[in-house]
Amino acid sequence: MDTKIARIIHDEFGIETDVQLSRPEPQFGDYATNVALQLAGSLGKPPREIAEQLAEKLRQVDDFAEVTVAGPGFINLHLSDTNLLALTHQKPRPKKSGQTTVIETNNPNPFKAMHIGHAFNAVLGDTIANLLAVDGAQVHRVSYHGDVGLHVGKSMRSLLHYVDGNADKLNEIPEAERNTFMSRMYSEGSLAYKEDEGAKTEIDGLARESFSPQSEIYKQVYTICKTWSFEQIDQIVALLGNQPIERRFLESEADAIGVRTVKANVPAVFKESNGALIFEGSKYGSFDNAFVAGNGRGLYGARDLGLMQLKNDAFHAEKSYIATAEEQRDYFKGVIAAAELCLPELKGVTVNISTGTVKLSTGKMSSRDGDVIEIAWLFDQFKDAIRARDGEPTDEIVAGALRYQFLRVKIGSDVVFDINEAVSLTGNTGSYLQYAHARARRILEKISGPIETPKVINSEDRALVRKLGEYHEVVETAVSSLEPHHVCNYLFELAQEFNRYYEKNHVLGSDHEQHRAGLVALYADTLKAGLSILGIVAPEKM
């Protein structure tokens, strides 16, 4: 449609231009454009005059039932019924066909409990992967975890004291309690590190040993608890509705590669300072950061450099996405700048998506000291809230409610929600949309005979059909910006539009039953497609 208008502009005025269409309020039309105002300067004519000339030509095109000019030169376009119906079947146009991408869809560290902040990044990463796939990209889902370093040392001190030389004591801990147990071990170690100088020295030594365990008891405890952690992570990520990863990357794999890269780029990229190797990130919108410590040990920056190379060796991706909390934004600016100087072949590949913070209405959900709200607790709270409204808290319903609360907020904004509100069947929630889909399917089950694809639009249908026709545009917007909240907003608005339609227009037993059932089917299919992008199951019954 925009290309047709562009051709008319070229034919009339000899100008090549990109025509931008917007969606005005329904009473003004199905589309609107201000292209006449944009052309006024180059043509030296009043925009209203240009708009009238274009409108006259557009009225001769079968696509439009009505073309009007408003204000100083806005052109409002009412589509023909045929074209309005056609939009309900239009698919989003993929723009990344053939592009190879890799994205981290979960990255909680082992030896600590998985908390709600980890769940947020996992859900967001998985949904961005869905958007990339819709856009035609070949998507590789991976994960990255810190299996070495200080946090391991904190947990290992507590764990080694707990087993007291007998690793078999760990086998006494029930599987359902392991995540909470690991959380307690890390919390105790974190507190000791802050308050006890002797413990701090011990933990620093245990952190160094995580890179190459020496004692047999350390190896046994480390191996058991690392296995536990990844089993828990995989189970929880699956409960969140994420698709499986292809490969798990570890800091222990990336460390040596990153350290070699840093040392090979001294002094061109990194500067030595008291034995440490520093990247002057302040010159690149970041901050000065040590990538290698004075003792030669790799730090986070070096490991992220190593990870970039591991990903490239595995997938040769054109884009690599990482979703992290907002407080890591400047850190990643520096890491990416350093990587592009050291490894010019990776220039423009890594993209950091900065997220907000997840909070309950009572405050922040986690802290670095190990005092966290575990994801299992939040699952239980959602189940209780769903039961309180007489619902059945299946894993799919819980995941749908939780995912939607994360995704409906624009990326970068904080996620603050009330659990009871999140499972409501009357507000802007995942539960409401899942229920809306199930309700539509129940209507269709009661239709006798085949359901027809609508061929005409009655006057009462137009608002719903218009909204259905916006789906492909909304998805294209979400895909181009990698912002799932656009899909959430649209699905909620669509469900509201359908409710208005259904309240005034009976389906079952009406003279227009087959026709209206066709609209219900279009609506249900559109809901299901949008929920699928969000990673939310569209239940047939609820």
Outline the structure in words.
51% of the residues lie in helices and 13% in strands. It starts with a helix and ends in a 9-residue tail after the last helix. A five-stranded parallel β-sheet has the order 6-5-4-10-11. It has a three-stranded antiparallel β-sheet with strand order 1-3-2. It has 20 helices and 14 strands. It is of the alpha/beta class. Strand 2 (64-70) and strand 3 form a beta hairpin. Helix 2 packs across helix 3, helix 6 packs across helix 7 (178-195) and helix 6 (150-163) crosses helix 8 (197-209).
Brief overview, please?
With 542 residues, this protein is of the alpha/beta class. Helix content is 51%, strand content 13%.
Q: What is the end-to-end distance? A: 40 Å
Q: Low-confidence parts, pLDDT < 50 over ≥5 residues?
A: 364-370
Strand tally: 14
Biggest sheet architecture: 5 strands, parallel
Helix share bin: 40-55%
Question: Which overall shape is indicated by the principal axes computed on the Cα atoms?
Answer: flat
Number of helices: 20
Radius of gyration: 28 Å
Q: Which structural class do the helices and strands define?
A: alpha/beta
Proportion of strand residues: 5-15%
Strand order of the largest sheet: 6-5-4-10-11
Oligomeric state of the chains?
single chain
Mean pLDDT: 93
